[in-house]
Amino acid sequence: MALSTSVSGQGFHLTASSRIRVDDWSLVAHCSLHVLHVLPPDVYADPYELALRPAYSSRLHPASDLELPVAAVNHSDSVLILDVHAPRTAPDVLVDVPLHARYGNPAPASYHPIALPSPLAFWACPSSARTLAHPPAPPPQLQPYLSPEMFSSHAISLIPSSAADERADIVIPVGTPSHLPLVDIGTASVMLLMFVYLVYASISTAQRLHSHHRAKKD
Questions:
Q1: What is the pLDDT of residues 111-138, one digit of tens each?
Q2: Which CATH number is associated with domain 2-175?
Q3: CA 30, 15, 159: angle at the middle one, nearest 5?
Q4: What does each C-alpha distance from 146 to 25, 30, 63, 65 come to in angstroms?
Q5: What is the per-residue pLDDT across 19-49, written as a single tens digit (0 to 9) for each?
Q6: Alpha-carbon 108 to chain mean position
Q7: Would you say 120 and 35 are in contact if contact means Cβ atoms under 8 Å apart?
Q8: What is the distance between the alpha carbons of residues 181 and 162, in angstroms, rounded to a whole number?
Q9: Total-model pTM
Q10: Contact, 42 vs 115, CB < 8 A?
Q11: Are 48 and 60 in contact, with CB atoms under 8 Å apart?
């Protein structure tokens, strides 16, 4: 068994793909398949979008603040665990996860690199009666992300990865500091024009209602 991964997409919308090769399903007939993603602050998964995927159910901790720029979120990783619902016949299980990059801080180079860790895949198999009292600890790679009660009655088996690199490097466009004054001026101008339009619309509406009321009286 082996795990291979890839990341596709451009700009702020990405797809993280995991392909799990299963040589013999009979060896894991009673086990559940899971894929774990560690997402840096620059990247988030939309739980509402994930809920529409029939191939898996998901758990995300902590919950994502959708659409916030990276400057406005807590600078800590989030953990996405997928419970994969795979048919027990195909030799390969493909898991596609939609991800989104946050708007980054301005940078002189007008782009921002993000290191996205490769996902981890594992089997959770029911423990025997002898090991239930003292279940084995998860593999070291998974211990920082799995709470003790999450798979307390299961033995965890990490699926080896065939990836040469333990991360994927992606690049997103960002603004440059030299553009900030123009953005500020443009934002202020638009807000001023909106205010003027609202005042004009309010006065015009008031005059029209007043004329209509006076005409009815005459």
A1: 888 999 999 999 999 876 555 556 678 8
A2: 2.60.40
A3: 30
A4: 25, 20, 16, 22
A5: 999 999 999 989 999 999 999 999 999 999 9
A6: 26
A7: yes
A8: 48
A9: 0.79
A10: no
A11: no
